[in-house]
Amino acid sequence: LSQYIQVDLIPYGNAITDVKPDGQFTFKCQHGGTECLGNKVHACSILRAKDDLTRVRLATCMINNNYIPDRIGKECCEKYNITWDDVRTCAHGDQGSILLNNFGQLTHSLNPPITFIPTIAINKDRSNQVLILKNLLKVVCEHLDKLHINPIECRDQI
Length: 158
What we know:
By secondary structure, the protein is mainly α.
């Protein structure tokens, strides 16, 4: 499907960003500091991934065990040939905070605002979240079918 779709991952969630007078960012995440670090690890790693498929696999790997972001980040980065030292330096430094702030601006600019996490948009349409979260492949295939695009991955979905 990768030739037909573009995937944009926005690791931010229901966080709140505070900009200090010196321009530094602090974040308050819904599930605490570990979630904020996990979001930074996600942000820094997807920036370094070579393609959408790797980004999705990387995020899935990290989400499956996100209680210790540095440990799972290292494991997942190594699995997908991304240099962990670069990701760790980014996540614990200014670049990670800048990326998370940028993703926060994208998240907060959505209209209407997001109501739960994860939220998935297809062609900027965020309706029908229940079905999307239940069977994303089916919904993607239905959208492609409307464009008369019928990849092999969609044969059993429509």
